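Order emerges. For instance:

***
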Amino acid sequence: MTELAEVVKGKSKGTDMALYIEKQRPHFERALGKTMDVDKFVRTVWTQLRTIPNLPQCTTESVFGGALLAAQTGLSLNSVQGHAWLVPFWSSTKKVFEAQFVLGYRGVAHLAWNSGRVKDISAREVYANDHFEYEYGLRDKLVHRPARGDRGEIEQFYAMARFVGTGHVFNVITLDDAKAKKEQALKKAKNPGNPELPWNKYFNQMAMKSAFLPMKAWLPLSPESQRAIDADEAVITPEPDSDGGWTPEWDDVIDMEGEEQ
């Protein structure tokens, strides 16, 4: 059975959404350029529709908009690479499910790496038994030597980037910082315990993204990549452009209450 057949089997809304996405293939191909094969990209959208509860029930505009933004910036929509996800949330005002575009830390790293001006970029967890020290200032430094054997519990997260030629940037957050970010994000959820929400399913990845985001002003990002980071956790709406295609747009204020099962 093909992935498209698996998506549409027994689901009228899933059928409609999968066929709608298939019809948008020319727009995805145009947006992707040479960054990714369009067949591979469309399959990642189908996989999201098949595996994420309530995503087929979202508005077609929000699913297409989020997927189009991912295509324009060369991001894969799958859990393996962890670039980005489409996550269904309930709009208390519109009374419909809408798909929210949610970046992962690997997505942020991918966007920076594509600039060609970054020679090393990463994010990591720091455990209690690791040797870890850092300083900010004129002679800032970051030293992390993971412990051998029992590393203990996670205490901190950090992200860092070294630029081609010279220069670097890093940022450190504590476990409590990450938990506060999670709590803030899940306040919008009707069911904050839903295991499919990114902060519940991929806590460490989302924490490392939170370490990355304050660095965005120093990362060498293209305008398209900057837009993708600015659109994190937004509902994307496709707007027609002058060339007969579509441009992803979004509002700064999002009225969301969260995903329902």
